[in-house]
Amino acid sequence: MHPPGADVVVVRHGEIGTKSEHVGTKMERRLRENLDAVLADRGVDAEIEQRRFRLWLHTDDPEGATAAAADTFGVVSASPAVRVDPTIESIREALAEAARQGYDGGAFAVSARRAGVESAHPFSSTDIEREGGSAVWNAAEAAGVDPEVDLDDPDTELFVDCREDDALVFLEKRAGPGGLPLGTQDPVVALLSGGIDSPVAAWELMKRGAPVIPLYVDLGDYGGVDHRARAVSTTETLARYAPTRDVRLRIAPAGDAVADIAEAVDVGRMLVLRRFMFRVAAAVAEERGAVGIVAGESVGQKSSQTTANLAVTSAAVDLPVHRPLLTVDKTEITARADEIGTFHESTIPAGCDRLAPDYPETRGRLGAIREREPAGLSERARAVADRLEVVEGARDGVGDRDPAEGETA
Ligand code: ATP
Ligand code: MG
Protein backbone atom coordinates (compact mmCIF):
# COMPACT_ATOMS: atom_id res chain seq x y z
CA MET A 1 0.00 0.00 0.00
CA HIS A 2 1.33 3.43 -0.88
CA PRO A 3 0.77 6.82 0.72
CA PRO A 4 -1.11 9.43 -1.31
CA GLY A 5 1.16 11.18 -3.78
CA ALA A 6 3.74 8.37 -3.85
CA ASP A 7 5.88 8.78 -6.93
CA VAL A 8 9.03 6.96 -5.93
CA VAL A 9 9.76 3.36 -4.95
CA VAL A 10 12.78 2.75 -2.76
CA VAL A 11 14.40 -0.58 -3.65
CA ARG A 12 16.82 -2.16 -1.17
CA HIS A 13 19.30 -4.89 -1.89
CA GLY A 14 21.25 -6.88 0.63
CA GLU A 15 24.10 -9.25 -0.04
CA ILE A 16 25.57 -7.12 -2.81
CA GLY A 17 26.73 -4.86 0.02
CA THR A 18 29.04 -7.58 1.31
CA LYS A 19 30.99 -7.65 -1.99
CA SER A 20 34.18 -5.84 -2.85
CA GLU A 21 33.60 -2.50 -4.53
CA HIS A 22 34.49 -3.86 -7.94
CA VAL A 23 32.14 -6.87 -7.75
CA GLY A 24 29.44 -4.90 -5.94
CA THR A 25 29.37 -2.24 -8.66
CA LYS A 26 29.01 -4.88 -11.35
CA MET A 27 26.25 -6.61 -9.46
CA GLU A 28 24.40 -3.36 -8.89
CA ARG A 29 24.53 -2.67 -12.59
CA ARG A 30 23.18 -6.14 -13.29
CA LEU A 31 20.40 -5.63 -10.77
CA ARG A 32 19.43 -2.37 -12.43
CA GLU A 33 19.34 -3.98 -15.89
CA ASN A 34 17.27 -6.90 -14.63
CA LEU A 35 14.82 -4.68 -12.80
CA ASP A 36 14.51 -2.49 -15.86
CA ALA A 37 13.64 -5.59 -17.90
CA VAL A 38 11.03 -6.82 -15.40
CA LEU A 39 9.40 -3.37 -15.41
CA ALA A 40 9.37 -3.24 -19.20
CA ASP A 41 8.07 -6.79 -19.42
CA ARG A 42 5.10 -5.82 -17.27
CA GLY A 43 4.49 -2.54 -19.03
CA VAL A 44 5.33 -0.47 -15.95
CA ASP A 45 6.76 2.95 -16.72
CA ALA A 46 9.54 3.79 -14.30
CA GLU A 47 12.88 5.51 -14.39
CA ILE A 48 15.63 3.91 -12.32
CA GLU A 49 17.99 6.12 -10.36
CA GLN A 50 21.05 4.60 -8.76
CA ARG A 51 21.54 5.82 -5.18
CA ARG A 52 23.89 4.72 -2.46
CA PHE A 53 22.91 1.14 -1.43
CA ARG A 54 19.50 1.71 -3.03
CA LEU A 55 17.73 2.05 -6.31
CA TRP A 56 14.95 4.56 -6.70
CA LEU A 57 12.17 4.07 -9.18
CA HIS A 58 10.50 7.27 -10.31
CA THR A 59 7.06 6.29 -11.49
CA ASP A 60 3.37 7.11 -11.84
CA ASP A 61 2.57 3.48 -11.05
CA PRO A 62 3.96 2.87 -7.55
CA GLU A 63 2.02 -0.39 -7.09
CA GLY A 64 3.18 -1.89 -10.39
CA ALA A 65 6.76 -0.80 -9.80
CA THR A 66 6.76 -2.20 -6.26
CA ALA A 67 5.39 -5.55 -7.45
CA ALA A 68 8.04 -5.72 -10.19
CA ALA A 69 10.83 -4.97 -7.71
CA ALA A 70 9.49 -7.58 -5.30
CA ASP A 71 9.89 -10.17 -8.08
CA THR A 72 13.45 -9.22 -8.99
CA PHE A 73 16.25 -11.41 -7.63
CA GLY A 74 18.63 -9.49 -5.40
CA VAL A 75 15.93 -7.18 -4.07
CA VAL A 76 15.39 -7.42 -0.32
CA SER A 77 12.47 -5.02 -0.04
CA ALA A 78 10.66 -2.23 -1.84
CA SER A 79 8.66 0.71 -0.49
CA PRO A 80 6.40 3.00 -2.48
CA ALA A 81 6.97 6.40 -0.87
CA VAL A 82 5.98 10.04 -0.94
CA ARG A 83 8.75 12.63 -0.82
CA VAL A 84 8.37 15.77 1.29
CA ASP A 85 10.54 18.55 2.69
CA PRO A 86 12.68 17.45 5.62
CA THR A 87 10.78 19.51 8.18
CA ILE A 88 8.72 18.26 11.09
CA GLU A 89 5.66 20.09 9.73
CA SER A 90 5.85 18.48 6.26
CA ILE A 91 6.53 15.07 7.77
CA ARG A 92 3.55 15.44 10.13
CA GLU A 93 1.31 16.37 7.22
CA ALA A 94 2.47 13.46 5.08
CA LEU A 95 2.05 11.03 7.96
CA ALA A 96 -1.47 12.28 8.61
CA GLU A 97 -2.31 11.80 4.93
CA ALA A 98 -0.75 8.34 4.96
CA ALA A 99 -2.73 7.45 8.09
CA ARG A 100 -6.00 8.45 6.43
CA GLN A 101 -5.07 6.06 3.61
CA GLY A 102 -3.46 3.19 5.45
CA TYR A 103 -4.48 3.15 9.12
CA ASP A 104 -7.97 2.03 9.96
CA GLY A 105 -7.69 0.58 13.43
CA GLY A 106 -5.52 -1.65 15.58
CA ALA A 107 -2.20 -0.47 16.93
CA PHE A 108 0.21 1.72 14.99
CA ALA A 109 3.79 2.88 15.28
CA VAL A 110 5.87 5.50 13.52
CA SER A 111 9.44 4.37 12.83
CA ALA A 112 11.87 7.07 11.82
CA ARG A 113 15.44 7.01 10.61
CA ARG A 114 17.78 9.86 9.86
CA ALA A 115 20.18 8.43 7.33
CA GLY A 116 23.62 9.96 7.69
CA VAL A 117 22.32 13.46 8.45
CA GLU A 118 22.91 13.66 12.17
CA SER A 119 23.72 17.35 12.11
CA ALA A 120 21.61 18.47 9.15
CA HIS A 121 18.38 18.92 11.08
CA PRO A 122 17.52 20.39 14.46
CA PHE A 123 15.39 17.35 15.40
CA SER A 124 16.16 13.73 16.19
CA SER A 125 14.53 10.57 14.89
CA THR A 126 12.81 10.27 18.27
CA ASP A 127 11.36 13.75 17.72
CA ILE A 128 10.02 12.62 14.35
CA GLU A 129 8.47 9.54 15.92
CA ARG A 130 6.84 11.49 18.72
CA GLU A 131 5.61 14.38 16.57
CA GLY A 132 4.64 12.08 13.71
CA GLY A 133 2.85 9.74 16.11
CA SER A 134 0.71 12.57 17.42
CA ALA A 135 -0.14 13.63 13.84
CA VAL A 136 -1.25 10.08 13.05
CA TRP A 137 -3.21 9.93 16.30
CA ASN A 138 -5.07 13.13 15.52
CA ALA A 139 -5.78 12.14 11.93
CA ALA A 140 -7.15 8.79 13.09
CA GLU A 141 -9.39 10.34 15.73
CA ALA A 142 -10.68 12.88 13.24
CA ALA A 143 -11.54 9.99 10.91
CA GLY A 144 -13.45 8.16 13.65
CA VAL A 145 -10.77 5.52 14.25
CA ASP A 146 -9.91 4.70 17.85
CA PRO A 147 -6.10 4.95 17.79
CA GLU A 148 -3.70 2.86 19.82
CA VAL A 149 0.08 2.83 19.88
CA ASP A 150 2.25 -0.27 20.07
CA LEU A 151 5.89 0.34 19.28
CA ASP A 152 6.91 -3.30 19.57
CA ASP A 153 4.23 -5.09 17.61
CA PRO A 154 2.12 -2.63 15.61
CA ASP A 155 -0.58 -3.70 13.15
CA THR A 156 0.26 -0.69 11.00
CA GLU A 157 3.75 0.74 10.76
CA LEU A 158 4.37 4.16 9.22
CA PHE A 159 7.96 4.79 8.17
CA VAL A 160 9.95 7.98 7.80
CA ASP A 161 13.41 8.12 6.21
CA CYS A 162 14.72 11.60 6.83
CA ARG A 163 17.63 12.63 4.68
CA GLU A 164 19.46 15.87 4.09
CA ASP A 165 17.32 17.27 1.27
CA ASP A 166 14.07 15.41 1.68
CA ALA A 167 12.11 12.94 3.77
CA LEU A 168 10.43 9.76 2.55
CA VAL A 169 7.19 8.57 4.08
CA PHE A 170 5.96 5.05 3.37
CA LEU A 171 3.61 2.38 4.69
CA GLU A 172 5.30 -0.87 3.84
CA LYS A 173 8.52 -2.68 3.13
CA ARG A 174 7.38 -5.28 0.66
CA ALA A 175 9.69 -8.30 0.77
CA GLY A 176 11.57 -9.20 -2.39
CA PRO A 177 13.15 -12.60 -3.04
CA GLY A 178 16.57 -11.55 -1.75
CA GLY A 179 19.50 -13.45 -3.22
CA LEU A 180 21.72 -12.05 -5.98
CA PRO A 181 20.96 -10.59 -9.39
CA LEU A 182 20.21 -13.13 -12.08
CA GLY A 183 23.16 -13.56 -14.42
CA THR A 184 25.86 -13.13 -11.81
CA GLN A 185 26.48 -16.90 -11.91
CA ASP A 186 27.00 -19.28 -14.79
CA PRO A 187 23.90 -21.19 -15.90
CA VAL A 188 22.66 -24.60 -14.84
CA VAL A 189 20.27 -27.09 -16.42
CA ALA A 190 17.05 -27.33 -14.40
CA LEU A 191 15.30 -30.70 -14.47
CA LEU A 192 11.60 -29.85 -14.45
CA SER A 193 9.20 -32.75 -13.98
CA GLY A 194 5.87 -30.96 -13.90
CA GLY A 195 5.73 -31.73 -10.17
CA ILE A 196 5.66 -29.27 -7.28
CA ASP A 197 9.27 -29.45 -6.20
CA SER A 198 11.33 -29.00 -9.32
CA PRO A 199 10.18 -25.45 -10.25
CA VAL A 200 10.90 -24.34 -6.69
CA ALA A 201 14.39 -25.84 -6.91
CA ALA A 202 15.01 -24.05 -10.22
CA TRP A 203 13.76 -20.78 -8.75
CA GLU A 204 16.14 -21.13 -5.78
CA LEU A 205 19.13 -21.34 -8.12
CA MET A 206 17.84 -18.35 -10.09
CA LYS A 207 17.53 -16.50 -6.80
CA ARG A 208 21.24 -16.99 -6.19
CA GLY A 209 22.03 -15.55 -9.62
CA ALA A 210 22.20 -18.63 -11.85
CA PRO A 211 20.14 -18.58 -15.05
CA VAL A 212 18.45 -21.92 -15.75
CA ILE A 213 17.92 -23.92 -18.89
CA PRO A 214 14.68 -25.79 -18.16
CA LEU A 215 14.66 -29.41 -19.29
CA TYR A 216 11.77 -31.84 -19.26
CA VAL A 217 12.60 -35.45 -20.00
CA ASP A 218 9.76 -36.97 -21.97
CA LEU A 219 9.38 -40.50 -20.64
CA GLY A 220 7.25 -41.66 -23.56
CA ASP A 221 4.59 -44.16 -22.50
CA TYR A 222 5.66 -43.71 -18.88
CA GLY A 223 5.20 -39.97 -18.92
CA GLY A 224 2.14 -38.10 -20.02
CA VAL A 225 0.87 -35.02 -21.75
CA ASP A 226 -0.34 -33.72 -18.38
CA HIS A 227 3.19 -33.67 -16.96
CA ARG A 228 4.53 -32.08 -20.06
CA ALA A 229 1.82 -29.43 -20.01
CA ARG A 230 2.63 -28.63 -16.42
CA ALA A 231 6.33 -28.40 -17.15
CA VAL A 232 5.45 -25.95 -19.93
CA SER A 233 3.26 -23.75 -17.74
CA THR A 234 5.65 -23.73 -14.77
CA THR A 235 8.38 -22.69 -17.18
CA GLU A 236 6.26 -19.74 -18.30
CA THR A 237 5.94 -18.70 -14.65
CA LEU A 238 9.69 -18.98 -14.05
CA ALA A 239 10.32 -16.95 -17.20
CA ARG A 240 8.39 -14.02 -15.72
CA TYR A 241 11.22 -13.66 -13.22
CA ALA A 242 13.85 -13.63 -15.94
CA PRO A 243 12.79 -11.53 -18.92
CA THR A 244 16.38 -10.97 -20.06
CA ARG A 245 16.97 -14.68 -20.39
CA ASP A 246 16.14 -17.51 -22.75
CA VAL A 247 13.97 -19.61 -20.42
CA ARG A 248 12.25 -21.71 -23.06
CA LEU A 249 11.56 -25.28 -22.02
CA ARG A 250 13.64 -27.96 -23.70
CA ILE A 251 12.01 -31.36 -24.08
CA ALA A 252 14.23 -34.40 -24.40
CA PRO A 253 12.59 -37.29 -26.30
CA ALA A 254 13.61 -40.17 -24.04
CA GLY A 255 10.62 -42.50 -24.56
CA ASP A 256 12.47 -45.24 -26.43
CA ALA A 257 15.42 -45.21 -24.09
CA VAL A 258 13.16 -45.34 -21.03
CA ALA A 259 11.16 -48.25 -22.47
CA ASP A 260 14.40 -50.14 -23.06
CA ILE A 261 15.60 -49.42 -19.52
CA ALA A 262 12.26 -50.55 -18.10
CA GLU A 263 12.51 -53.79 -20.03
CA ALA A 264 16.15 -54.48 -19.24
CA VAL A 265 16.27 -53.55 -15.56
CA ASP A 266 14.07 -54.75 -12.74
CA VAL A 267 15.79 -54.30 -9.37
CA GLY A 268 17.21 -50.78 -9.24
CA ARG A 269 15.22 -49.65 -12.26
CA MET A 270 14.36 -46.24 -10.81
CA LEU A 271 17.97 -45.52 -10.05
CA VAL A 272 19.09 -46.49 -13.52
CA LEU A 273 16.39 -44.28 -14.94
CA ARG A 274 17.34 -41.32 -12.79
CA ARG A 275 20.99 -41.78 -13.66
CA PHE A 276 19.94 -41.69 -17.30
CA MET A 277 18.04 -38.40 -16.75
CA PHE A 278 21.11 -36.84 -15.19
CA ARG A 279 23.18 -37.99 -18.16
CA VAL A 280 20.75 -36.32 -20.53
CA ALA A 281 20.89 -33.15 -18.44
CA ALA A 282 24.70 -33.28 -18.42
CA ALA A 283 24.76 -33.64 -22.20
CA VAL A 284 22.48 -30.61 -22.54
CA ALA A 285 24.67 -28.70 -20.10
CA GLU A 286 27.77 -29.49 -22.12
CA GLU A 287 26.08 -28.33 -25.30
CA ARG A 288 24.90 -25.07 -23.73
CA GLY A 289 27.89 -24.22 -21.56
CA ALA A 290 26.03 -24.85 -18.32
CA VAL A 291 28.04 -25.78 -15.24
CA GLY A 292 25.60 -27.83 -13.16
CA ILE A 293 22.24 -29.50 -12.85
CA VAL A 294 19.45 -28.56 -10.45
CA ALA A 295 16.83 -31.05 -9.29
CA GLY A 296 13.97 -30.94 -6.80
CA GLU A 297 14.96 -33.82 -4.57
CA SER A 298 14.62 -33.77 -0.81
CA VAL A 299 16.14 -36.35 1.51
CA GLY A 300 13.75 -39.25 2.05
CA GLN A 301 10.84 -37.72 0.16
CA LYS A 302 10.81 -40.73 -2.18
CA SER A 303 12.65 -44.02 -2.32
CA SER A 304 14.93 -42.61 -5.01
CA GLN A 305 15.79 -39.74 -2.65
CA THR A 306 17.36 -41.58 0.27
CA THR A 307 20.87 -40.45 1.11
CA ALA A 308 22.19 -43.74 -0.29
CA ASN A 309 20.27 -43.40 -3.55
CA LEU A 310 21.20 -39.75 -4.01
CA ALA A 311 24.81 -40.89 -3.87
CA VAL A 312 24.16 -43.48 -6.57
CA THR A 313 22.34 -41.08 -8.88
CA SER A 314 24.81 -38.20 -8.42
CA ALA A 315 27.65 -40.49 -9.41
CA ALA A 316 26.23 -40.85 -12.93
CA VAL A 317 27.60 -37.47 -13.94
CA ASP A 318 30.68 -35.37 -13.33
CA LEU A 319 28.73 -32.14 -13.05
CA PRO A 320 27.42 -31.19 -9.61
CA VAL A 321 23.73 -31.90 -9.04
CA HIS A 322 22.38 -28.97 -7.03
CA ARG A 323 19.51 -29.86 -4.72
CA PRO A 324 18.39 -26.70 -2.96
CA LEU A 325 15.39 -28.50 -1.41
CA LEU A 326 17.54 -31.24 0.07
CA THR A 327 16.48 -30.52 3.65
CA VAL A 328 13.20 -28.74 3.05
CA ASP A 329 9.93 -30.38 4.15
CA LYS A 330 7.13 -30.86 1.66
CA THR A 331 4.78 -28.42 3.41
CA GLU A 332 7.42 -25.71 3.20
CA ILE A 333 8.16 -26.53 -0.46
CA THR A 334 4.46 -26.30 -1.22
CA ALA A 335 4.20 -22.93 0.52
CA ARG A 336 7.14 -21.64 -1.52
CA ALA A 337 5.60 -22.95 -4.75
CA ASP A 338 2.48 -21.04 -3.85
CA GLU A 339 4.41 -17.81 -3.34
CA ILE A 340 6.41 -18.21 -6.53
CA GLY A 341 3.23 -18.92 -8.44
CA THR A 342 4.04 -22.42 -9.67
CA PHE A 343 1.91 -24.37 -7.24
CA HIS A 344 -1.45 -24.61 -8.96
CA GLU A 345 0.24 -25.71 -12.12
CA SER A 346 1.79 -28.76 -10.55
CA THR A 347 -0.41 -30.85 -8.34
CA ILE A 348 -0.09 -34.24 -9.97
CA PRO A 349 2.43 -36.97 -9.23
CA ALA A 350 5.31 -37.09 -11.70
CA GLY A 351 5.59 -39.88 -14.25
CA CYS A 352 8.33 -41.75 -12.49
CA ASP A 353 5.63 -43.12 -10.23
CA ARG A 354 4.40 -45.37 -13.01
CA LEU A 355 7.83 -46.86 -13.41
CA ALA A 356 8.40 -47.57 -9.77
CA PRO A 357 8.16 -51.14 -8.54
CA ASP A 358 6.05 -51.96 -5.45
CA TYR A 359 9.10 -52.33 -3.24
CA PRO A 360 11.66 -49.96 -4.64
CA GLU A 361 15.30 -50.00 -3.69
CA THR A 362 16.06 -47.56 -0.88
CA ARG A 363 19.71 -48.52 -0.38
CA GLY A 364 21.19 -48.73 -3.80
CA ARG A 365 24.87 -49.52 -4.08
CA LEU A 366 26.79 -47.89 -6.86
CA GLY A 367 28.68 -51.03 -7.89
CA ALA A 368 25.53 -53.14 -8.11
CA ILE A 369 23.62 -50.52 -10.06
CA ARG A 370 26.50 -50.06 -12.49
CA GLU A 371 26.49 -53.79 -13.13
CA ARG A 372 22.81 -53.84 -13.93
CA GLU A 373 22.91 -50.77 -16.10
CA PRO A 374 22.64 -51.51 -19.83
CA ALA A 375 25.77 -50.52 -21.77
CA GLY A 376 25.92 -47.36 -23.81
CA LEU A 377 23.57 -45.18 -21.76
CA SER A 378 25.88 -42.18 -21.95
CA GLU A 379 25.92 -42.28 -25.76
CA ARG A 380 22.19 -42.77 -25.74
CA ALA A 381 21.73 -39.77 -23.44
CA ARG A 382 23.81 -37.65 -25.81
CA ALA A 383 21.71 -38.78 -28.75
CA VAL A 384 18.54 -37.81 -26.87
CA ALA A 385 20.06 -34.43 -25.96
CA ASP A 386 20.82 -33.86 -29.64
CA ARG A 387 17.14 -34.08 -30.50
CA LEU A 388 15.73 -31.49 -28.08
CA GLU A 389 12.43 -29.89 -28.82
CA VAL A 390 12.35 -26.21 -27.84
CA VAL A 391 8.94 -25.02 -26.67
CA GLU A 392 8.18 -21.58 -28.08
CA GLY A 393 6.02 -20.20 -25.30
CA ALA A 394 3.80 -17.18 -25.03
CA ARG A 395 6.88 -15.22 -24.00
CA ASP A 396 8.83 -16.19 -27.08
CA GLY A 397 11.23 -13.52 -28.22
CA VAL A 398 11.32 -11.77 -24.88
CA GLY A 399 14.49 -13.42 -23.72
CA ASP A 400 17.19 -12.89 -26.27
CA ARG A 401 20.24 -13.02 -24.03
CA ASP A 402 22.47 -16.00 -24.11
CA PRO A 403 22.13 -17.75 -20.74
CA ALA A 404 25.65 -19.10 -21.13
CA GLU A 405 27.09 -15.69 -20.44
CA GLY A 406 27.69 -15.37 -16.73
CA GLU A 407 29.74 -13.22 -14.48
CA THR A 408 31.19 -14.70 -11.38
CA ALA A 409 31.21 -13.07 -7.98
P1 ATP B 1 8.86 -32.89 -8.30
O1 ATP B 1 10.05 -33.07 -7.44
O2 ATP B 1 9.12 -31.99 -9.46
O3 ATP B 1 7.66 -32.48 -7.55
P2 ATP B 1 8.54 -35.55 -7.78
O4 ATP B 1 8.53 -35.10 -6.38
O5 ATP B 1 7.47 -36.44 -8.24
O6 ATP B 1 8.52 -34.32 -8.79
P3 ATP B 1 10.64 -37.31 -8.66
O7 ATP B 1 9.80 -37.87 -9.72
O8 ATP B 1 11.19 -38.20 -7.63
O9 ATP B 1 9.99 -36.10 -7.91
O10 ATP B 1 11.83 -36.55 -9.30
C1 ATP B 1 12.82 -35.92 -8.53
C2 ATP B 1 13.45 -34.82 -9.36
O11 ATP B 1 13.91 -35.32 -10.61
C3 ATP B 1 12.44 -33.73 -9.72
O12 ATP B 1 12.38 -32.75 -8.71
C4 ATP B 1 13.00 -33.19 -11.00
O13 ATP B 1 14.06 -32.28 -10.74
C5 ATP B 1 13.60 -34.42 -11.65
N1 ATP B 1 12.64 -35.08 -12.58
C6 ATP B 1 11.80 -36.10 -12.34
N2 ATP B 1 11.11 -36.45 -13.44
C7 ATP B 1 11.53 -35.63 -14.43
C8 ATP B 1 11.22 -35.49 -15.83
N3 ATP B 1 10.33 -36.26 -16.43
N4 ATP B 1 11.86 -34.53 -16.53
C9 ATP B 1 12.78 -33.73 -15.93
N5 ATP B 1 13.12 -33.84 -14.64
C10 ATP B 1 12.51 -34.76 -13.89
MG1 MG C 1 9.70 -34.30 -5.37
TrEMBL record:
A family per Pfam: ThiI
A molecular function (GO) term: ATP binding
GO biological process terms held by the UniProt record: thiamine biosynthetic process; thiamine diphosphate biosynthetic process; thiazole biosynthetic process; tRNA 4-thiouridine biosynthesis
PROSITE patterns noted in UniProt: THUMP
One GO CC term, this protein: cytosol
UniProt-annotated location(s): Cytoplasm
Residues binding ATP: L191, L192, R274, G296, Q305
Protein name: Probable tRNA sulfurtransferase
